[in-house]
Amino acid sequence: MLVDGCVMIDWSQIEELRTEMDDAFDEVVALFLEETDEIMDRVRAARAVPYADGLALASDLHALKGAALNLGLTEFAASCGAGEELAQSGAAGAVNLQGIIDTYTVSKTEFLAVLSRHAA
Q1: For residue 12, is it within any domain?
Q2: Does residue 44 lie in a domain region?
Q3: How many domains is the chain partitioned into structurally?
Q4: The domain containing residue 72 runs over which residues?
Q5: Distance from CA of residue 117 to its chain's centroid?
Q6: pTM for this entry
Q7: Which residue ranges in the chain fall short of pLDDT 50?
Q8: Is residue 10 part of a domain?
Q9: Angle at Cα 68 formed by Cα 67 and Cα 72, nearest 5°?
Q10: pLDDT score of 4
Q11: Which residue among 2, 15, 39, 120 is least crowded, i.e. fewest CB within 10 A of its CB?
Q12: 64 assigned to some structural domain
């Protein structure tokens, strides 16, 4: 069982996913990280060259939010949701991209650290 005091991550969601996926859990995590890192590369690049279309940013943030919710990354999902709402309302320039990047970095680091400890 995965247990951790970090409120950024809903470990019960991860435990449920692990139970449902059984042997495919590691593959699901790898796919999540691959797809999320790809989108996060676009978000990072948008700090220097903003998205040409706020709806494209909203779409990327929506995808990130959904993936994050599936893996229990609650704080990251909330950051993406807030940014998605701003981008959809025409305020893409007000989206805190650095905050989203920072939250992802911390969440991913914590997530992988705990998974590593429990895999050993």
Answers
A1: no
A2: yes
A3: 1
A4: 26-119
A5: 21
A6: 0.88
A7: 1-6
A8: no
A9: 125
A10: 43
A11: 120
A12: yes
